[in-house]
Write a structure and sequence with these properties.
alpha/beta, Rossmann fold, 4-stranded parallel β-sheet, about 15% strand
């Protein structure tokens, strides 16, 4: 115990102010953390006691094929599209359509899309490259707390699997685990299925760790601030001024919302908070939903249909941001930056730009670190 009543013994209180959870007025950045790097001196890191229990922090994103070929894409799509959280009406007819038409044909078509964005140096998709970097940078940012914090990353579908990473945590002696689904807005087909997979693994354990799952952060001040900073930086680098800025979120069947999924209301809340932060009205920053699949009615308005209409209505300069994606992936790098850009220009638009996701940028990483520290309270 400290002899000074005004000095805390909580290691989290010694954490660099730049990654402490945001208060009404954010504290200044600590020296050495302004660039997203941890202090260099070993004395700034709390040593874990020999044999001490560890805390695991797992970043989770959706997933991606393990290779840019038809077989890998088919395996990935099959795992994804047979999840009852994703396709809730998992009927015999759906299984016949999936195996007889969707998987054989969609796999081959999607291979071409993945090859457009593939990280050939690492032979992996950008989503894997970015999520790995997010994990490595988060580990660096959390170093001041102590060496007992273990950070890793996983994909809900394909590899590295959630189960494999949780098993690695168990082998390293983690008796407390924080799961961080990197989905700002909650949705059963994304956030909930991460929980399902975590619980399936825990059901097999005799000795289960304590568990926390980070809630959605759609209205978190650091998240909104990071989005605004990213957008402003992106706009400043463009050779044109947009007539309209579009916030495009992944779509969802309307029936899921009717059954109680809060996704739509959280997307709307994020967009409204971003408007207020940037002092934009609802005509300057509009909301749409992308990536429709199947014949069911999905959330409106549709991104690609709105892009087409804007071009037809005389909008010449369009910028798109994707606040629901924490890392660039097929849906942002190909669907938005390539497909939607092509549609915009085909129907009369002239200049189109897709702003990168927060990815492993400094604002994005400080946000993730602050979320982690917030969720680890009481454990650190």
């Amino acid at each position: 115990m400290s002899e000074n009543p005004n000095v805390s013994d909580d290691p989290a209180d010694e954490l660099a102010p730049s990654i402490l959870p945001r208060e009404p007025e954010p504290p200044p950045l600590a020296p050495g953390l302004g660039e997203g790097s941890a202090p260099e001196q070993a004395s700034d890191t709390v040593e874990a006691a020999p044999g001490a229990a560890r805390i695991g922090v797992l970043l989770v994103n959706l997933g991606t094929p393990d290779a840019a070929n038809a077989a890998a894409v088919r395996r990935y799509l099959k795992e994804f599209l047979t999840d009852p959280r994703v396709i809730e009406k998992n009927s015999l007819l759906w299984k016949m359509v999936l195996n007889g038409a969707i998987l054989p044909f969609r796999s081959r078509r999607k291979v071409r899309d993945y090859r457009k964005i593939w990280n050939r140096e690492r032979d992996e998709s950008p989503l894997k490259t970015i999520t790995r970097s997010q994990s490595e940078q988060l580990a660096n940012l959390l170093k001041p707390i102590g060496k007992h914090i273990v950070v890793d990353w996983a994909m809900r579908y394909a590899t590295p699997s959630i189960a494999s990473r949780l098993a690695a945590f168990a082998e390293r002696g983690c008796d407390r685990i924080l799961i961080m689904p990197l989905y700002p807005q909650y949705a059963a087909p994304t956030t909930a299925t991460v929980g399902d997979e975590v619980f399936r693994f825990l059901m097999k354990l005799r000795r289960q760790p304590a568990l926390r799952i980070m809630p959605a952060y759609y209205d978190d001040l650091d998240y909104i601030g990071a989005l605004a900073s990213s957008l402003e930086t992106g706009l400043a680098a463009l050779p044109f001024k947009p007539d309209v800025i579009m916030a495009s979120y992944h779509g969802m069947p309307l029936e899921y919302v009717r059954q109680g999924d809060p996704y739509q209301s959280q997307c709307e809340a994020t967009t409204e908070l971003l408007r207020r932060h940037l002092k934009l009205d609802d005509q300057s920053l509009i909301l749409t939903y992308q990536s429709r699949f199947g014949r069911a009615k999905w959330l409106e308005p549709s991104t690609i249909q709105t892009v087409k209409k804007l071009a037809k209505d005389g909008v010449k300069n369009l910028v798109v941001i994707t606040p629901g994606f924490s890392a660039d992936c097929l849906e942002t790098l190909e669907e938005i930056a390539v497909e939607n850009a092509r549609v915009f220009k085909r129907y009369g638009g002239e200049k189109f730009a897709a702003i990168p996701c927060l990815n492993d940028s400094e604002p994005g990483m400080l946000m993730i670190a602050r979320l982690a520290v917030r969720e680890l309270k009481g454990w650190i």
